[in-house]
Design brief:
Helices cover 36% and strands 21% of the residues. With 406 residues, it is α/β, with parallel strands linked by helices. Helix 6 (146-162) packs parallel to helix 7 (185-202), helix 7 packs parallel to helix 8 and helix 13 (323-332) crosses helix 14 (338-344).
């Protein structure tokens, strides 16, 4: 006998990146996993005889749990002052002089306790949970030194233990050169590769490594050294798309995912398709920064490159905590179809995080992570700006009201 069965629902299975709609469907759960999915008419008996609990969905839609595969959710401080100054015409130098730049956020994050970081990150996370997010990537970047980065990753793990979601972590210590290493990028990369990353990996805090080297202080050789350090620890790589055009770097650093691919050309799209690399689109960043250049969606489509979507949540370029808004922006800014957008936060995002065998689709054997929506068609999830039609979130078979997170 199954633990539970969900009836009178329309299912969007998202198999093969398509809606995979099953009208008047049913889904059964056993020990936290999907045990049966299909049309209700095909059930092998009466629901009351098949399961201990029977849930009537009242014609709601069920989708896989949503996945936010790129965030920097854990940090202190805010970019609001820099945002205001920039809109008033201030230069980067003036913003730094006003103590409102990235260095201020790093300093605030380093000074914050783990409990303070848990409280602030939990508030951001609650908004994502309330929109049906059941798995997330949390990366570092604002720790500033070995102790700071380890603190961020510990907080990320603690969030995964206390909240009903799956947390994957990405080590990212090269967002900026810490002030104490100014003029000494080589020494800092030595520290990252020889001390910070091995320590984080030994503590079980790292699932992947972002080897992007932001800012003028870092070079191609620095990124290659990080690739080698990550490879030695057998950790998957993530990279910024700006470096994909560097053939030397691309040859030595095969990445699972390429993030924010604005500068990608036709050859780059072909290379991604050949290697099975996933493009992670960040429409919130494009919108917030007013970037005139957009990802080459047509080239990615032509070559069959999977396109994942994420909030990119961070205090500087994408202070976004709405995965549903990303669906809308992906359609209106990038011209994705609603079906492509929904696949971007389910099956394709699952592949980015190495969760494709357990998350991202409604299939037998997958974890019973799914969302109940008060909608008439799946396209409504991308259509309505600011709306949240989520009525319930099921994590490993356990139902929670969406209102619990708001």
């Amino acid at each position: 006998m199954w633990d539970s069965i969900w009836l009178d629902a329309h299912l969007a299975t998202l198999r093969a990146g398509k809606y995979g709609s099953i009208r008047r469907g049913a889904l059964a759960v056993q020990q936290g996993r999907i045990a049966w999915v299909g049309a209700r008419a095909d059930l092998p008996g009466e629901p009351e005889r098949l399961a201990r609990e029977v849930h009537a969905c009242g014609g709601r839609w069920l989708t896989p749990g949503l996945i936010d595969c790129h965030t920097q959710l854990v940090h202190a401080g805010s970019g609001a002052r820099a945002f205001e100054l920039r809109l008033q015409g201030a230069s980067d130098a003036q913003i730094a002089q006003a103590d409102a730049d990235s260095a201020a956020i790093v300093r605030a994050t380093r000074e914050a306790s783990e409990m303070e970081l848990i409280r602030s990150a939990s508030a951001r996370l609650a908004r994502l949970l309330g929109e049906g997010v059941t798995a997330i990537d949390i990366r570092g970047g604002y720790g500033g030194d070995a102790a700071g980065e380890l603190k961020l990753l510990r907080v990320a793990r603690l969030l995964g233990e206390s909240a009903p979601l799956t947390v994957k972590t990405t080590f990212f210590a090269t967002q900026a050169l810490p002030p104490e290493y100014r003029g000494g990028a080589d020494a800092y990369i030595d520290c990252v590769a020889a001390q910070m990353l091995p320590a984080a990996a030994a503590a079980g805090l790292v699932d992947a490594v972002d080897v992007s080297c932001a800012g003028a202080a870092f070079t191609r050789e620095h990124a290659q050294r990080l690739c080698a350090a990550a490879a030695a620890l057998r950790l998957p790589l993530r990279r910024d798309a700006a470096q994909l055009v560097d053939a030397g770097l691309a040859a030595g650093c095969a990445a699972v995912s390429i993030h924010h691919p604005l500068a990608l050309d036709e050859a780059g799209a072909q290379s991604m398709a050949a290697s099975g690399t996933i493009a992670v689109l960040l429409p919130g960043r494009s919108s917030f920064l007013g970037e005139p250049r957009l990802p080459p969606i047509d080239a990615l489509r032509r070559h069959g490159v999977p396109m994942a979507l994420a909030t990119g949540c961070n205090p500087e370029s994408a202070p976004a905590t709405s995965i549903l808004l990303m669906l809308n922006l992906a359609c209106t800014l990038y011209r994705l179809t609603p079906e492509e957008a929904l696949a971007g936060v389910t099956c394709h995002a699952a592949r980015v995080l190495g969760l494709e065998s357990s998350h991202g689709t409604l299939e037998v054997g997958k974890e019973a992570d799914f969302v109940l929506w008060e909608i008439g068609e799946p396209a409504e999830l991308a259509y309505a700006m600011g709306a949240n039609p989520c009525t319930g979130v099921v994590k490993r078979g356990e139902l929670r009201s969406a209102g619990e997170f708001r």
